[in-house]
């Protein structure tokens, strides 16, 4: 089997009801339930104008830097509701996808969204789309179509490891990856955290919050509180 030119058609997928359970929960709340180490680098940002969160199982794509042959293969093999996650080996010089390919993914494949660790183009139209599109930047420079590349293998996207079938959640703050095996444990924690966080926001707004723990923490960590101005 030629490593670097493999296309796996099958994945271990999370329960669809489990995936649906993450809808409506902010990515930040879920991330806080995962020790805050699951968020993709903020270089990957929302480029379109969806009216809903992005959530779905990862369909992973590993491309050679600046090459989109493997992404064309993903057009053939991804499924409705997938989040296509593309590892571009850190390249920022060439766009990997534009309106033509995006149209096929949106209208024919009906994916839940796309996350690209690299640039896109045709932003003048894509920025108004309801399909969640995450990328690093834009450039008119197009990609090559030579390969190699792989589908449904582990990838690195936004400095986060993503395995096929992991749950990908994105909102205006950015994108997180919830490992498929951990998702059943994380969901109820995230749901409870979200409810508590809403209640906490109300208390902070009303000034009904005890911040004495801040004083204790500053003292324990050796901060000096000086009742004077700074003097160079």
From TrEMBL:
Keywords: Magnesium, Metal-binding, Methyltransferase, Transferase. Substrate binds at residues 98-101, 121. It catalyses: 4-hydroxy-4-methyl-2-oxoglutarate = 2 pyruvate; oxaloacetate + H(+) = pyruvate + CO2. Its cofactor is Mg(2+); a divalent metal cation. The keyword Transferase applies. Its EC number is 4.1.1.112, 4.1.3.17. Belongs to the class II aldolase/RraA-like family. Homotrimer. This is Putative 4-hydroxy-4-methyl-2-oxoglutarate aldolase. It comes from Lactobacillus kalixensis DSM 16043. The lineage of its organism: Bacteria, Bacillati, Bacillota, Bacilli, Lactobacillales.
């Amino acid at each position: 089997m030629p490593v670097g030119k493999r296309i796996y058609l099958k994945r271990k997928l999370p329960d669809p009801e489990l995936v649906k359970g993450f809808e409506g929960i902010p990515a930040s709340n879920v991330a806080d339930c995962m020790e805050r180490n699951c968020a993709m680098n903020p270089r990957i940002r929302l480029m379109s104008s969806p009216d809903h969160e992005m959530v779905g199982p990862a369909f992973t794509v590993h491309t050679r830097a600046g090459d989109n042959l493997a992404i064309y293969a993903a057009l053939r093999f991804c499924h409705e509701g997938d989040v296509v996650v593309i590892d571009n080996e850190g390249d920022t010089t060439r766009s990997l996808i534009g309106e033509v390919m995006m149209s096929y993914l949106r209208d024919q494949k009906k994916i839940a969204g796309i996350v690209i660790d690299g640039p896109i183009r045709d932003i003048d139209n894509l920025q108004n789309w309801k399909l969640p599109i995450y990328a690093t930047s834009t450039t008119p420079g197009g990609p090559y179509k030579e390969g190699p590349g792989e589908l449904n293998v582990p990838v690195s996207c936004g400095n986060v490891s993503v395995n096929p079938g992991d749950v990908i959640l994105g909102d205006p703050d950015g994108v997180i990856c919830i490992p498929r095996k951990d998702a059943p444990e994380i969901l109820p924690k995230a749901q409870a955290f979200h409810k508590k966080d809403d209640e906490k926001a109300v208390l902070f707004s009303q000034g009904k919050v005890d911040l004495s723990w801040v004083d204790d923490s500053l003292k324990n960590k050796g901060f000096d509180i000086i009742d004077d101005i700074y003097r160079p």
